[in-house]
């Protein structure tokens, strides 16, 4: 598997948006959740969104008509 740096222009801003929005939501709405759990939820959301967006956003050389080996 090859690492594409061109996809990072989508991954990094999206991860920042997810991190900021999840921080605002979890600190404003869920005061009863311990701080460590809040931190783990935020980090998990950022990593999950980064991994998903890395594979879903296309690269400049990708062929959108390629649907697989079938």
The biggest beta sheet reads: none
* SS class: mainly alpha
How much of the polypeptide forms β-strand, as a percent range? under 5%
Percent range for helical residues?
A: 55-70%
Poorly predicted parts: none
> N-to-C terminal Cα separation, in Å?
20 Å
Query: What is the 3D form?
Result: elongated
User: What pattern of helices and strands is seen along the backbone?
Assistant: HH
Can you count the helices? Answer: 2
Global mean pLDDT: 85
- The count of DSSP E runs of length 2 or more, i.e. the number of strands, is 0
Q: Indicate the radius of gyration in whole angstroms.
A: 16 Å
Q: Can you describe this structure?
A:
The protein is mostly helical. Helices cover 63% and strands 0% of the residues. The protein is built from two helices and no strands. Helix 1 (8-29) packs antiparallel against helix 2. The longest helix has 22 residues, at 8-29. The radius of gyration is 16 Å and the shape is elongated. The chain starts with 7 loop residues before the first helix and ends in a 14-residue tail after the last helix. The mean pLDDT is 85.
Considering the chains and any ligands shown, give keywords for the structure.
single chain, 70 residues, mainly alpha, elongated
Layout of strands and helices, then pairs:
Elements: H1 8-29, H2 35-56
Transmembrane segments: 7-27, 39-57
Keywords: Acyltransferase, Membrane, Transferase, Transmembrane, Transmembrane helix
Organism: Metasolibacillus meyeri
């Amino acid at each position: 598997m090859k690492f594409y740096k061109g996809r990072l222009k989508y991954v990094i801003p999206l991860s920042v948006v997810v991190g900021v929005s999840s921080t605002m939501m979890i600190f404003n709405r869920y005061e009863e959740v311990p701080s460590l759990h809040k931190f783990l939820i935020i980090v998990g959301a950022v990593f999950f969104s980064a991994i998903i967006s890395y594979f879903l956003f296309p690269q400049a050389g990708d062929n959108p008509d390629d649907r697989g080996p079938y």
